[in-house]
Every structure is written in structure tokens, then in C-alpha cells.
């Protein structure tokens, strides 16, 4: 599967998550304070909750429901109750547009 355009960079708000869907897979996009865009699986591995509704702090995205924090670069949970990581996807920016191939995850 080829990378899909999911949004424009201008659609992202710094230190806030945005939910997008690529290839039927929900993904949380985060534009961090350094200007990097991260893409992680949008579903919390603890409670089937959208992570895009959570809180961005430093290099983490916190689930609003139970407080699990996931590292944006690795998808690893840093706090309980989640103990399983979420997938991390490769982000490509072309001419101000954000592309993700949902079949390709980063090797962590």
C-alpha cells in the first residue's frame, strides 16, 4: 500500500493531537514543540480510547480516560495501566502535506 495523504501540516496545532485515518487505521498525529510530526496508533492499549483526545506533554501523549502516557517516538507506555505499546508510523511531509503508509511501522 502506498502512503496516503492524511492532512496538511497547517491542520496541525503544536502540542495537540489530531485523529486521522489511513487505510482504515486510526492514527494520532502530533506536531511537537520542536516542529517534528509524530504518528502513533490512536487507540489506547488499555481501554480502547482515542489517544487523540488526550494531552500532549513533552514527548508523550496521555490517554484522557485512565492516564497512561505513551512515548511519541516509540509508542511505549510510560505509565500504567497500559503496558502494551501502540504502533508508530513513518511520517512523510511533501509540499506541506502529511502522508502515512499505515502498513509501515517504525522499527523500535
What does this structure look like?
This protein has 108 residues and is mainly beta. The chain has a single domain, classed as Rieske [2Fe-2S] iron-sulphur domain (Rieske Iron-sulfur Protein). Helices cover 0% and strands 44% of the residues. It contains no helices and nine strands. It has strands at 4-8, 17-22, 25-31, 37-41, 55-57, 60-62, 69-71, 88-94, 97-105. The chain has a six-stranded antiparallel beta sheet, with no helix packed on it. It has a three-stranded antiparallel beta sheet with strand order 5-6-7, with no helix packed on it. A hairpin with a 2-residue loop joins strand 8 (88-94) and strand 9. It is globular, with a radius of gyration of 13 Å. The protein starts with a strand and ends with a strand. The model has no long low-confidence stretch (mean pLDDT 95).
Amino acid at each position: 500500500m502506498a502512503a496516503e495523504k492524511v492532512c496538511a501540516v497547517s491542520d496541525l496545532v503544536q502540542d495537540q493531537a489530531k485523529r486521522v485515518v489511513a487505510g482504515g487505521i486510526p492514527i494520532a498525529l502530533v506536531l511537537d514543540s520542536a516542529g517534528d510530526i509524530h504518528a502513533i496508533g490512536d487507540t489506547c492499549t488499555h481501554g480502547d480510547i482515542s489517544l487523540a483526545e488526550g494531552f500532549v506533554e513533552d514527548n508523550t501523549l496521555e490517554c484522557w480516560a485512565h492516564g497512561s502516557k505513551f512515548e511519541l517516538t516509540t509508542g511505549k507506555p510510560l505509565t500504567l495501566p497500559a503496558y502494551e505499546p501502540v504502533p508508530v508510523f513513518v511520517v512523510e511531509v511533501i509540499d506541506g502535506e502529511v502522508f502515512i503508509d499505515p502498513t509501515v511501522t517504525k522499527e523500535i
